[in-house]
Amino acid sequence: MACSILLRHKLKIAIIGAGAAGIIAAITAKRLNKNIQIDLFDANKGIGKKILASGNGRCNISNSQVTHKNYLGENPDFTSYALKEFTFKDFEKFCKSIGLLLDIKETNKVYPLSNEAKSVTKLLDLALDSLGVNIYLESLISDIEKIENKFNIKTQTQEYKDYDKVLISNGLGAAPQLNANESGLDFASKFEHSFNPTYPSLVGLHTDVNYHSRMQGVKKECNVSLYINGQLEQEIFGDVLFTKYGVSGFAILDISQVAAYNLSLYQDVKIAVNFFPKINRNDLSDQIQSLFKTTPNQKALDILTGMISNKIAPVLLEICKVDSEAKAGQVNAKQIKAISYQLNQWKLKITDTQGFGHAEASGGGVRTDEVDNKTYESKKCKNLYFAGEVLDIVGNRGGFNLQFAWASGYLVGKALGKH
Q1: What are 374-385's pLDDT values in tens digits?
Q2: Three-class SS state of 82
């Protein structure tokens, strides 16, 4: 008798957020157990909006070389089990199963072979549809409650009742223009979860100087050093782009993860930009001195524009207290040393980030020690699950955030598919 009652009861699951984690969880669960009902909710008009936006719209959907060292959070090692159980090879296999072929670059970044982001969401959409997953778009969830053993979820206009399991995979606040929000943290708090403060990650940084606009648009490959409370924390080589608010570019996006995290903790954050990382300071000083000696009657400003951008040169002289009209022969050895020092270590105090609206990812989130690292089930509430960005895990630039979303979503899918 008990067996026949069990057969009559169809497992009913709600997934909040149709991003990478929610989508793969739905597909994995349905493939394991055809006899379950899955309702997938998303605030947008289509699924996978952040997948479409990844890699500057080219869809950098994964990275072929991933370890827990590519992640930040209270406990980055939390990712290890998921990354081991759902490796890049497993992701590749999953993609083939929905008809998606991948292009693996020498940098280990992974893109769809079609080079079109839309082909990714289209194939995921078709997979969900063929499995009979119910998709509710433009459905922003406003509340979740648990009555006895069942969950009810609400939008502004409707209520959906009697779910056996719920997955919260609707991310955090990065990219509010894609309807991103932090409602997942509100839902988590309701079920007695705690979370670490959120902050924008992979984002431009604001600096406290008054010459932003004068250097705007200058882009150069530099070495960037990050200092937290005066201590060297990190060094990265790459593009630096000077902007009207401060600095951006790939090197800045990479270093912004640790910078933004420490800003959220009210630490003193500074960076030092080295415009000539391959030349040591003394050699640079000698080279400038030699140039100035060769053409003593030429303006120092004009000579410097042969080395660096004509937008940087006047600011450089101003900082080093050299008259912009000064001839090269009038610049003394002490001033030349100051110029070379500044070019080797252009220090900038970081005051803020460009915010969630310009961030590629969010740091902070639901504390991972309150979530099972094998099933991603809540330790506070039975049959409640978390996956992807809503957790206090944020990856480096280059497809790492999406790979964690796929991996965590896959493990959740396996857990959801079990009766």
Answers
A1: 999 999 999 999
A2: helix
Q: How far apart are CA 276 and CA 185, in angstroms?
A: 44
CA 66 – CA 77 distance, rounded (Å): 12
Give CA–CA dist 188/381, Å, rounded: 10
Any bridge partners for residue 417, and if so which? none
Q: What would the two tokens of residue 65 be?
A: 């070389």
Select from 3.30.310.50, 3.40.50.2000, 3.50.50.60, 2.30.120.10 the CATH code of 2-200+361-416. Answer: 3.50.50.60
> Any idea what DSSP says for residue 26?
H
> What are the tens digits of pLDDT across the range 121-173?
999 999 999 999 999 999 999 999 999 999 999 998 999 999 999 999 999 98
Would you say residue 57 has pLDDT above 80?
Answer: no
CA 372 to chain centre: 23
pLDDT at 260: 96
CA dihedral 253, 255, 256, 257 (to 10 degrees): 110
What pLDDT score does 152 carry? 97
- The two three-digit tokens of residue 219, written as one number: 């882009």
> 4-35: string of b/e by CB count within 10 Å (b at 16+)?
eeeeeeebbbbbbbbbbbbbbbbbbbbeebee
How confident is the model over 13-39, as pLDDT tens digits?
A: 999 999 999 999 999 999 999 999 999
Q: Using one digit for the tens of pLDDT, what is the confidence trace for 214-272?
A: 999 999 999 999 999 999 999 999 999 999 999 999 999 999 999 999 999 999 999 99
8 A C-beta contact, residue 413 and residue 24? yes
**Could you tell me if 353 and 260 are in contact, meaning their C-beta atoms sit under 8 angstroms apart?**
yes
Would you tell me how many other CB atoms lie within 10 Å of the CB of residue 150?
15
Domains 2-200+361-416 and 201-276+347-353 alike in fold: no
What single-letter amino acid sits at 145? E
- The domain covering 201-276+347-353 belongs, at the CATH homologous superfamily level, to Translation factors (2.40.30.10)
Residue 179 three-state SS: coil
The domain locations on the chain are 2-200+361-416, 201-276+347-353, 281-346
pTM exceeding the 0.90 threshold for the entire prediction: yes
Residue 176 tokens read as 């509010």
Selected from 2.60.40, 3.40.50, 1.10.8, 1.10.10, the CATH number assigned to the domain covering 281-346 reads 1.10.8
Torsions phi, psi of 141, nearest 5?
Answer: -75, 130
SS3 state at 315 = helix
